[in-house]
Amino acid sequence: MGDAVGGMRVETIWIHPVKSMIGSAVAAAEVGDLGVEGDREWALRDLTTGGIANTRQTPRIMQLAASGDASAVTITLPGGATVRSSDPDVDEVLSAALGRPVALVARRPAADTDFYRRPAPDPEAPPVDLMATLREIFAREADEPLPDFSKFAPEVMEFETPPGTFVDCYPLLVMTTSAIRSLQAAVPESVIDVRRFRPNLVVDTGDEPGHPELGWAGRRFRVGGAEIEIINDCPRCAAITKEITPDIPADRAILRHVVRDLGQAVGAYARVVTPGRVTVGDPVVAL
After folding, report:
1. b/e 194-219 (16+ beta carbons within 10 angstroms → b)
2. Is pLDDT of 17 > 90?
């Protein structure tokens, strides 16, 4: 049995009901094999490409906020208007707000692999410059390296997201208060807001300097009633540069720091070893 290293505790639990949209902090949540219950239960299907809508083609998606669960979700638009998943015109409203045709879709079982499969390239379209596309997706400048793709779940080569989920790679994304504080110190002119990074768990690491979670790969922690294992750090893409609200504007300087000084990563991916309930204030105990 381990001890709470440096008195680490759960600072915040975040649930993002719709992939890529603003979520909300909650006091407690069940954590299971698929991550935090209620997280990424919905996504937007891009009706132009056939794939899951992304922040490269639809950056305004990050300005929409979502609340709800697997049964129903309410989406708040930047001007304050709302639309519900049950509304007959939900797709039309969201398409108008984003300037691109989209459809709100609910998560389906993992066995429905065709639902999650990446769309085949258009045979009539000009050949795609893969390296240029990757640089655009990850917002890498010409002299910057691309991420180490071995850190991504192998399924994402064939599928938009691992079948059965709408997470990018793994069930949980963990950040620390040290990381948020260190980012602000490194880019003091930027607005460092946790909503840029879409974590599930923010761990209070006290006065620990830097980004301690980047060194946790392979370690297990008891978090409330759950046990998790850190897989690897989380390589970052253009999403963290997008505008969230007028007070959290578009900002590429953050990503320049992440690529140059942090090995391209902020936060760490984790899997759930033992499901359980997690509450704000719970000790985070190294095992």
Report:
1. bbbbbbbbbbbbeebeebbbbebeeb
2. yes
d(Cα 208, Cα 22) in Å, to the nearest integer?
28
What pLDDT does residue 154 have? 86
The pLDDT of residue 6 is 63
Counted domains in the chain: 1
Q: Which domain holds residue 255?
A: 5-120+129-286
pLDDT tens digit sequence for 97-110: 999 999 999 999 99
Burial class (CB in 10 A: 0-12, 13-18, 19+), 133: exposed
3-state secondary structure string, the chain? CCCCHHHCEEEEEEECCECCCECEEECEEEEECCEECCCCCEEEEECCCCCECCCCCCHHHHHCEEEECCCCEEEECCCCCEEECCCCCHHHHHHHHHCCCEEEEECCCCCCHHHHECCCCCCCCCCCCHHHHHHHHHCCCCCCCCCCHHHCCHHHHCECCCCCCCCCCCCEEEEEHHHHHHHHHHCCCCCCCHHHCCCCEEEECCCCCCCHHHHCCCCEEEECCEEEEEEEEEECCHHHHCCCECCECCCCHHHHHHHHHCCCEEEEEEEEEECEEEECCCEEEEC
pLDDT tens by residue, 174-221:
999 999 999 999 999 999 999 999 999 999 999 999 999 999 999 999
Q: Which CATH number belongs to the domain containing residue 115 in this structure?
A: 2.40.33.20
